[in-house]
Design a protein that fits this description.
It is built from twelve helices and nine strands. By secondary structure, the protein is α/β, with parallel strands linked by helices. The structure holds iron/sulfur cluster (SF4).
């Protein structure tokens, strides 16, 4: 490797790091746990009956984030936030008090109603992160355990895009849909004009996924090549496909499609507690690394292997390819847009 190449790679890494600092300061707020789906892998299924926060309590959380912490982007999650009758009021309050970007994490079933989408747009919602877990009703409705949910979610996505609200879809990868990930990308590309971003999430091994390990969870080494194929299908279709909770080295050569790599720090406000500032490398989300991670350049930002995953599958699912450690030149080449790492 010559000096010119080394400088080019170093410049790309620095530029990427600088870009992550420019990302808006974010607040992630759980509005409550009630949900109209009953996803089999849900990490919070046992909390669905927990009471929601009051409107006033949430206004105070917003005040703290927006006025005291300088947050300008709010991610409103649940449970299912669209079940709250005060959602429009809450969004409008956040917008009036300094939120520039407001994103809903939603299954979008309620957004099949156009008037609801219009009201949320007028109040200030700028984007939605929509859960869709299959490319057909059979798969999606099985995973959500709610017949008819696929049809409503698709209608919701369409309404959002038609109203100029950015959508990123999220699919939790399980035994029921892993083999159709590339087909899912094609389905999304051809069904939703204006959709640009897709996320494929490896499940948290807690809640429903932990209770039904054999039925639902695909080992990492099997899920990774299916995700890579879906990323490449997205490239062909003009869609940006990212992964979540998947070690970056397993989706080589697409390391930077691991969403954790450039994730900014954010403030978390859960129903039971508020945390001043965290990132995914904090103790709230402990990570496990193998000895062979060695000096991998992505170690500081990589999600690693979830401790529960390792506790469950042990080394049997962590015999990753030798030499998988990500080197600076690999990461830089990938970051610069080149797909292949020589
Ligand atoms: S830190 Fe370990 S698990 Fe993460 S990308 Fe590097 S080698 Fe893979």
């Amino acid at each position: 490797m010559n000096d010119q190449m080394n400088w080019k790679m170093a410049a790309e890494i620095i530029a990427r790091a600088a870009k992550s600092w420019e990302l808006p300061k974010s607040g992630y707020v759980k509005l409550g746990y009630a949900c109209n789906n009953h996803c089999r892998f849900c990490t919070a299924a046992w909390k669905h009956g927990a009471g929601d926060r009051s409107t006033e309590a949430l206004r105070q959380v917003f005040d703290g984030l927006l006025q005291e912490e300088g947050v300008t982007r709010l991610d409103l999650s649940g449970g299912e936030p669209t079940l709250r009758s005060d959602l429009v009021e809450l969004v409008a309050y956040a917008r009036a008090n300094g939120a520039v970007q407001i994103s809903l994490q939603t299954n979008a079933r309620a957004l099949a109603r156009v008037d609801w989408v219009r009201a949320l747009k007028e109040a200030g919602v700028t984007s939605c992160f929509v859960s869709i877990h299959g490319c057909d009703a059979h798969t999606h409705d099985f995973l959500t355990d709610r017949p008819g949910s696929f049809r409503q979610t698709c209608a919701g996505i369409r309404n959002l895009l038609e109203h100029g609200i950015c959508v990123t879809t999220n699919t939790v990868v399980t035994t029921a849909n892993a083999q159709q990930l590339s087909g899912l990308v094609m389905f999304l590309a051809h069904s939703f004009s204006g959709l640009k971003h897709i996320k494929l999430s490896y499940p948290h091994l807690q809640g429903g996924a932990a209770d039904q390990l054999e039925e639902l969870v695909v080992p990492l080494w099997k899920a990774a090549p299916l995700m890579v194929a879906a990323i490449e299908e997205g490239d062909r279709e003009g869609l940006h496909v990212e992964t979540e909770f998947m070690p970056a080295c397993l989706i080589a050569p697409h390391y930077h499609r691991a969403s954790e790599i450039d994730r900014p720090r954010y403030h978390l406000s859960d129903v039971q507690f508020t945390v001043p500032e965290i990132d995914h490398t904090s103790s709230l989300r402990p990570r496990y690394f193998l000895e062979s991670c060695g000096d991998c350049i992505l170690r500081n930002s990589c999600c690693g292997i979830h401790p529960l995953h390792h506790a469950t599958f042990g080394d049997a699912d962590t015999h990753f390819p030798p030499g998988r450690t990500v080197l600076a030149e690999d990461a830089a080449t990938c970051a610069s847009g080149s797909k292949a790492v020589e």
